[in-house]
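for the writeup, i need someone to sanity check this before i put it in the appendix. the sequnce is what the collaborator sent (i think, or maybe the updated version? ugh). structure was predicted straight from it, no edits. if anything looks off just tell me and ill rerun, i have time this weekend
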Amino acid sequence: MSLLLFAVILISGLGYYQYLTASKNSSSAELKTFTVQAGEGGAIISQNLEREKLIKSVVAFQLYVWRAGISSQLKPGQYSFAQNLSIREIADRLWRGPGKEREITLTFIEGWNLKQYAAYLETQRVVRADDFLVAAQKKADWWDDYKVVAGRPKTVDLEGYLFPDTYRVYRDATAEDIIRRMLHNLEQKLTPELLTEIERQGKTIHEVLTLASIVEREVSTDADRKLAADIFYKRIAAGIPLQSDATVNYVSGKGTTRPSADDLALDSLYNTYRYQGLPPGPISNPSLSAITAVIYPTPNPYYYFLTTPDGAVVYSKTHDEHVAAKAQYYP
């Protein structure tokens, strides 16, 4: 009986140890500078890590580096640690040394969608595409750490919420690490002034991001985006389908300038030729320019627009004018 009790205690202890070393220290991705002086061993380093609130258990850290055989191989130098790292991750980086952290610059282009983000991360050998898509498309508890996603429909993923920008990350950053940075960035970009204006207009963040993602893909200048946003709002109010080629391309997966007749017939709620109003969610991750354009559109008398092969935007008040413009530029 005593042996059985000992075994139970041992197994429970090992389970708790595994939990302590593998679980994240906190939900914050904020970076902290941490310095290891020459001659410092695992005991002193672990105490300093706890004092800086980078780990929760000195004993678990010391036990991990002892079992891994690296307690005397932790390298001196200056490190930048995110507060949401686990004991294992911190210990492994201390073993590699500060010169081996290998930060990388990642630039996510405005208007890219999740699949394009994922493919880019894989080409940079940071995160596998499939891993990124799972983290961005399968609801996780940590999504709730960000108010910006709280009001989104529960049936949609993080498309549109991952702010396109340039980020510095570790090469061994996880998909969650990168997504957290992007969500935090979006929350910073949506200032109290913008949030107040969205609420004043009776709109939601999700609606704004959805239309901004379409505007982002349709036109490229700040002025044209403000005009296009107003056109889309008027069409919604009048019960006219948005008829955005960008939404059709999102469904088809193609990047064509002019969707085919078969593409236009695709049965999807994201096909704004077939269904009125906004699609269920964003089709890309929009820039601040597109977001601002949707919040502060420029009133105009137009209901139609098209982009010419050379990138100019032609606006029309009537359907007949629009048909004539299409015949002129796309005979």
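The chain has 14 helices and six strands. The chain has a mean pLDDT of 90.
thx in advance!!
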